[in-house]
Amino acid sequence: MSISGLVYAVRDITLDIRKGEILGIVGESGCGKSMTAKSILRLHDEKKMEYGGSILLDGEKDILKMSKKELREMRGRDISMIFQDPITTLNPLKTIGKQILEMYQLHTDISGEEAQAKVLELLDLVGIVPAQDRFRQYPFELSGGQLQRVCIAMALACRPKLLIADEPTTALDVTMQAQVLDLLKRLQRKYNSSVLLITHNFGVVAEICDRIAVMYAGQIVESGDVREIFYHPCHPYTKDLIASIPKTGQHGTQLTTIPGMPPRLNQDIVGCPYAPRCTKVCDRCRTEAPPLKNAGETHEYLCFLEPDNSREVSA
Amino acid sequence: MSEPLIKVDHLKKYFPVAKTKGKFVKAVDDVTFEVQRGEIIGIVGESGCGKSTMGRCLMKLIDITDGSLYFDGQDITHFTKKEMDAIRSKMQMIFQNPFSSFNPRHTIGKSLMDVARHYGQTKEEAEKKIHELVEEIGLDQVVLRRRPSELSGGQLQRLAIARALVAGPEFILADEAVSALDVSVQAQILNMLIDLRDKYNLTMVFISHELTVVEHISDHVIVMYLGAVVEKGTSEELFYNPMHPYTRALLAAKPKETPDDEVNHELLTGDIPSAMSIPEGCRFCTRCPQCIPGKCDTEVPELRHISGDHYAACHLIKT
Ligand SMILES: Nc1ncnc2c1ncn2[C@@H]1O[C@H](COP(=O)(O)OP(=O)(O)OP(=O)(O)O)[C@@H](O)[C@H]1O
Ligand SMILES: [Mg+2]
Questions:
Q1: Which residue from A60, A210, A302, B235 has the least number of CB within 10 angstroms?
Q2: d(Cα B251, Cα B194) in Å, to the nearest integer?
């Protein structure tokens, strides 16, 4: 998938999300994580953005070629999304029950009492209980964590093939985060949905993801099985990110930092985009685009360094 | 031990509930602790437990309902706004959203200058101080000519710290100061705060719901639940030997650091009760897995000494 236009937000990305897996996209803010997610649902203003390439659903239907009507039907039914701030998703003037019900009826033929029963079941499933009472409550009557669970219920109402979750727990405290992650994982297993989870929190990734894609300057610079990335990162950027996380048992120690900032997304880039900040930089990194290398069956990265040079066992 | 810089004594902050007479949100309910000079003390707890309200009381941004607050040996509980202005330069704050610390229409240089002038520095003094601080936080002097919209969140958060330091404070309150930042930037800010503390012997209260961050930066930690302190101790005592069932539950909710970490997420069930109707007895009893009916739901446990600096308020703990 590639996008060009006013902002070169996402530069030539190839990403597979497999059936029934949770794929995490990590990287600093401004690296294009949310852009990528929104592209999949074509949520950008298409007067300002141009897409190129293809986004295939089930390996056949190209989302980029869909008509407006097809898109509307696809959103919510095949692919749905939850955001960082549940308040932005929910209508403050409608009861939460009604909102889930509408979502459900938009994509199914079920109506009346049967549909209502389904919604109650969903509320129950996400722990918003007693569902009968909660059904009639308005968003302002619920806490942030409860609202996020309502959004999950809504997003999963039609058992989508893919759920995109953009920083779903960033606004929550640790106990709520744990509850929401636990819920996400349980439901994903139950429905065998795929999940694309966008986060800058490596703890969240360690907790529930099967695979990780690390984004930098609009590119995926490394991807692989979650354990590969955590224990054998190959790209210097991935290593630096992991090193900068405070770890338990290291009170007061100096944390590793990454100097400088990611490039702006509309900046032209020659060579490797990470070169100006990379501690392992060499001359060709500044002029030549780095190649995609394999470091194992499921593990790829964009760098001149050989896997063995950079393969260090962390943890 | 020398006199603490801050002493909080049975402090309470109750907010009246609109339309309901005699009903209160007990946001901070009888909290006592001290902060020694040069120490960083962390406050943790779930959303709504009263961390920010506690912070706003410390800064005297809101009136204190009951109890006392001492700063540098002085009882400031009932200080008027004018009296506070006189010591304001010694107490400064850093917030979660760095964008809100600066006027969007002014250059950073002007914003910092205004603060310095407000605290009575001459133009020359202020310029020198600002120059030094910008250097100190590792930014180029050109940022002074920029407006907030032209800077990144990380740069702005550093400048917010510089802004807090312009007045030459002794005490800094950081309320979720790194929560909105990327890990790479968060690491820079945490390193910087620790360096600045060492250099200026600053005293800090660091509020955050991110436990690992608090463990990293704090010497002492306070755990709050529904407005009250349920446990406090050194970072080590608290994170390696948590005694209160609530602290344990909170730590159990922490996400893994790497995929193969062994963790036992015994998730807290139920939602935190409303601060308007705090449970009888131990306020945690409605969610506590070890609640003893007839005791925990009737008797309020006191914050008792366990060992060293370690205190907890729980009937189950034998001392
Ligand atoms: N001005 C106010 N009027 C009434 N109630 C208030 C006011 N400010 C805070 N509260 C209530 O006091 C309690 C404590 O809130 P506070 O903001 O201190 O929590 P917190 O621990 O900082 O939470 P968070 O982690 O979400 O920032 C909450 O129940 C809140 O609704
Ligand atoms: Mg707060």
A1: A60
A2: 24
Q: Which helix (H) or strand (E) holds B291?
A: none
CATH fold of B6-240: Rossmann fold (3.40.50)
What the block records as the tokens of A101 is 């019900």
Residue A192 in any domain: the answer is yes
Digit-coded pLDDT (tens) for A298-309: 899 999 998 864
Is a pLDDT exceeding 80 seen at residue A242?
yes
User: Which of B12, B15, B61, B175 most suits a substitution to test ligand 1, by most atoms within 8 Å of the C-beta?
Assistant: B15
According to DSSP, the β-strands at A56-57 and B74-75 are unpaired
Asked whether residue A12 is assigned to any structural domain, the reply reads no
Q: Which residues pair with B40 in a beta bridge?
A: B204
A149 touches A88 (CB < 8 A): no
Quote the CA–CA distance of B276 and A266 in Å, as a whole number.
50
Is the domain of A130 the same as that of A236? Answer: no
Q: Where a domain ends, among A174, A209, A244?
A: A209
Per-residue pLDDT at B200: 92
CA A40 remoteness from chain centre: 11
Query: Average pLDDT for residues A229-252, to the nearest whole number?
Result: 91
Would residue A217 count as lying in a domain?
no
Q: Across the beta sheet with B171-175, what order do the strands follow?
A: B91-94, B171-175, B203-207, B40-44, B220-225, B228-234, B310-312, B304-307
Are A128 and A153 in contact by the 8 Å Cβ rule? The answer is yes
Q: Which tokens hold the place of B58?
A: 């410390």
> Beta-carbon neighbour count of residue B141 at 10 Å?
11
pLDDT of A3 reads 33
Chain B within 8 Å of A250 (Cβ-Cβ)?
A: yes
Asked whether residue B121 carries a pLDDT value surpassing 50, the answer given is: yes
Q: Which residues contact B77 (CB under 8 A, 6 or more apart)?
A: B64, B67, B68, B69
How many domains are there within chain A? 2
Which residues of B lie closer than 8 Å to A, measured between beta carbons?
Answer: 46-48, 152-155, 182-188, 190-191, 194, 209-213, 215-218, 235-236, 239, 249-250, 253-261, 265, 267-268, 271-272
Beta-ladder partners of A194? A162
ipTM above 0.85, yes or no: no
Element (H, E) at A44: none
> Looking at the predicted structure, is the pLDDT value of residue B25 above 70?
yes
Please give the distance, rounded to the nearest whole angstrom, from the Cα atom of residue B97 to the centre of ligand 2: 12
Measure the CA–CA gap between B6 and B72, rounded to whole angstroms: 6
A186: three-class secondary structure by DSSP: helix
Tokens coding B163: 């802004």
Q: A48: domain range? A: 22-209
Distance CA A199, CA B182 (A): 10
Please tell me whether the peptide bond between A291 and the residue prior to it is cis, using omega within 30 degrees of 0. Answer: no
pTM of the shown model: 0.87
Rounded (10°) angle between helices B153-166 and B123-136: 140
In-domain check, residue A1: no
